[in-house]
Amino acid sequence: MPTPTLQHGDHLDGRGAHRFTILHIAQSSGGGVARVVADLAARQEARGDRVVVACLPDSRLSTAAAQGGAEVRVWNARRSPGPALLKEAAELRRIVDRVRPDVVHLHSSKAGLAGRLALRGALPTVFQPHAWSFEAVTGPMAVATVRWERTGARWAHRLVCVSDGERGQGEAAGVHAAYTIVRNGVDTGHFDSATAPSRETVRARLGIAASTPLVVCVARLCRQKGQDVLLAAWPSVVDRIPGARLVLVGDGSDRAALAARAPSAVSFAGDVADPRDWYIAADLVTLSSRWEAGMALAPLEAMACSRPVVVTDVPGAREFLPPRHATDCLVPRDDPAALGGKLTHLLADRASGRALGKQAHDHTCRHHSVDQVVERMYAVYGDAVRAWADGVRPGGE
Fold first, then answer.
1. Which pTM was predicted?
2. What is the pLDDT of residues 105-121, one digit of tens each?
3. Of 102, 277, 75, 294, whose CA–CA distance to 183 is shortest?
4. How far apart are CA 24 and CA 44, in angstroms?
5. Smallest Cα–Cα separation from 50: which of 71, 33, 77?
6. Phi, psi (5° rounding) for residue 222?
7. Cβ contacts of residue 52 below 8 Å, gap of 6+?
8. In what order do the strands lie in the sheet with 158-161?
9. 249-284 pLDDT per residue, tens
10. Do residues 96 and 3 lie in contact, with contact meaning Cβ atoms separated by under 8 Å?
């Protein structure tokens, strides 16, 4: 097992006497997790550090990581735990032995499971759940995943949550860990509507009339993201805003079921590598999630594009909205009537929507840029390396 070369107290800014080696491991190789990992990797590599990403081959993450300058190692892992888990953990151990990282950063539940089983605290380890595993399951499986997260916490020198709400969920479940909050960030330069193509240009490219009231939802098509609730709300919006159109951007296991129940004013754009055009084209962006990965990326990206958002009041949502936006932008979970009412109000009052969008843009640039995330993550890595060097037992019961 490799020994980290950083000494206690060294400043981990990517410009030190030696090249810091960071190994990111993720089974989730698409969606928000892929964007988080790819953004981190590209900026860490740009600072002069060696960055390695272990993930599924020929995936969105593997492509983006390579384009950002990171080394990519193949890790063929299934999404859910199963009989292949021990083999997957052994493969991760072999990758670690070859890469010899200074710190290992595990992303999402599957990498968190296999990676912590493989390392068991033998190297400075950072785990970032991107939504707790026990939030997605019920019954005996939920009990089992809670027990695992309690046990696995002892093998992570730092556990990164993206919101106070996500940390609160872990603590309420009895996951005792060395927590650090690093709120999600986005590439504000890329999503800034001031430097992107104009709304008119984008709408023409997408085949949407300039006058069409447009709501966009960017998310994986699955129960978690609650598009079924959005479809239930949509008829009430069209009744009051004639000609309004809803576009679901993304793909997933629920596409066929959602398409079967969608009215004619709803379109499916499929999976896109970069949703920026859809944010720019939209009058309003919504996300009707039943639960989230601590802090969803799509609303932050839309806000960086100066678009107002309407989102469900899941843990983390109140933390990324600008002050006083909750009244206009938050709705309860699984409440089609409340969701439809908020969407209708902001589509009808374009001036209020534009004002909220401008405030959202300024707030996101100040508090949620990916460069801020990178700076904070280096501090997390430093804490993890020092805890490892000092023999600190990270967590557990």
1. 0.86
2. 999 999 999 999 999 99
3. 294
4. 11
5. 71
6. -160, 170
7. 21, 22, 23, 24, 70, 71, 72, 73, 99, 101
8. 71-74, 50-55, 21-26, 103-107, 125-128, 158-161, 179-181
9. 999 999 999 999 999 899 999 999 899 999 999 999
10. no
CA 174 to chain centre: 23
| Tokens 């840029």 -> residue | 369
- Secondary structure of 18-78 in HEC code, one letter for each residue: CCCEEEEEECCCCHHHHHHHHHHHHHHHHCCCEEEEEECCCCHHHHHHHHCCCEEEECCCC
Give me 150's structure tokens.
Answer: 């309690």
Amino acid identity for residue 354 in this structure: R
The C-alpha atoms of residue 163 and residue 237 are separated, in whole angstroms, by 31
The residue count for the chain: 397
Task: Give the amino acid at 292.
Answer: E
Q: Closest Cα to residue 22, out of 68, 88, 81, 89?
A: 68
313 CB-near residues (< 8 Å, 6+ apart): 330, 331, 332, 333
The first and second tokens of residue 283, run together, are: 């009058």
Q: CA-CA distance, 305 to 285, in Å (whole number)?
A: 10
